[in-house]
């Protein structure tokens, strides 16, 4: 759609709004939200959170050391809160599908594939779904970091790990299984089923245009560890449900961040953490 409308990839928030307006004028939906699957409502604020980490001047671990010892709080993360607001600004400007709170992740894939919507904010697994369901559309879809300041980052979720317990029925067999899964042979099978950016240099994979776009950003040093599940010491509650409540008018953006702090404090106190006395 960007090519059809002669649009360039936006680097700033203002550029994104200008692009969205042109897409709307062309009779298309600029952004597709899939609010029935509430986990997808968290994606845009992630980029603001990353800006707060970058602008703090601290490393990822040091930033979270402050968060995990009650020295810094979600309610103090100005970029995070501002991006929560920006995600609703897109709705208020008419740039989002009208039934966004009842639309699904599956319908988002359909909308992007058939070209009725231009953009959906999600992870690389979204392209994996497109490859499976709409293979003839994969080469028509690109990707870019969500634009806020011009200095934009791709969020990276590190892969999971495999381990063998000493109480396993057959430790040596389990080790062999893990070794195989980690081998280039097995990784090649994974890569052919879901092409992506693999760390094993022996794995050969043809990147789709969207993944290639993100890989280029990473090579430029514009990658940052995704905050959820990689930094916090204590559960912060249901961020997705808080976002849903925000869109429905039950919370302000500030109250969303405060709710994360309240849940964090509750769980820290339950563990008798002295930092929350």
From TrEMBL:
Highest taxon of the source? Bacteria
Record's keyword annotation contains Transport: yes
Concerning InterPro entries, the annotation shows: Bact_solute-bd_prot1, SBP
The protein's UniProt keywords, in alphabetical order, are:
Transport
Q: Does the entry feature the keyword RNA-binding, yes or no?
A: no
What is one Pfam family matched by this protein?
SBP_bac_1
Q: Which PANTHER family match?
A: ARABINOSE-BINDING PROTEIN-RELATED, OSMOPROTECTIVE COMPOUNDS-BINDING PROTEIN GGTB
- Can you tell me which family this protein belongs to? Belongs to the bacterial solute-binding protein 1 family.
Record's protein name:
Extracellular solute-binding protein
The protein's organism comes out as Cohnella ginsengisoli
């Amino acid at each position: 759609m960007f090519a059809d409308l002669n649009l360039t990839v936006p680097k700033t928030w203002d550029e994104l709004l200008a692009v969205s307006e042109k897409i709307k004028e062309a009779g298309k939906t600029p952004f597709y939200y899939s609010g029935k699957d509430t986990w997808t409502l968290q994606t845009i604020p992630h980029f603001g959170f990353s800006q707060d980490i970058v602008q703090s001047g601290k490393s990822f671990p040091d930033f979270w050391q402050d968060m995990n010892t009650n020295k810094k709080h979600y309610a103090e993360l100005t970029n995070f809160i501002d991006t929560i607001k920006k995600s609703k600004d897109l709705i208020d400007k008419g740039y989002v599908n009208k039934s966004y709170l009842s639309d699904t992740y599956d319908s988002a894939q359909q909308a992007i594939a058939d070209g009725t919507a231009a953009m959906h904010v999600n992870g690389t697994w979204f392209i994996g779904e497109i490859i499976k369901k709409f293979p003839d559309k994969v080469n028509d879809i690109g990707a870019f970091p969500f634009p806020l300041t011009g200095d934009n980052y791709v969020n990276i979720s590190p892969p999971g790990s495999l381990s063998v317990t000493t109480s396993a029925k057959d430790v040596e067999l389990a080790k062999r299984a893990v070794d195989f899964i980690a081998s280039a042979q097995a990784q090649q099978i994974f890569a052919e089923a879901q092409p992506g950016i693999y760390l094993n240099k022996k794995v050969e994979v043809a990147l789709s245009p969207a993944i290639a776009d993100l890989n280029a950003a990473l090579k430029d040093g514009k990658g940052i560890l995704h905050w959820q599940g990689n930094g916090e010491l204590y559960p912060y509650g249901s961020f997705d449900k808080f976002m849903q409540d925000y869109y429905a008018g039950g919370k302000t953006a500030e109250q969303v961040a405060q709710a994360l702090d309240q849940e964090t404090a509750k769980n820290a106190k339950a563990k008798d953490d002295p930092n929350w006395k």
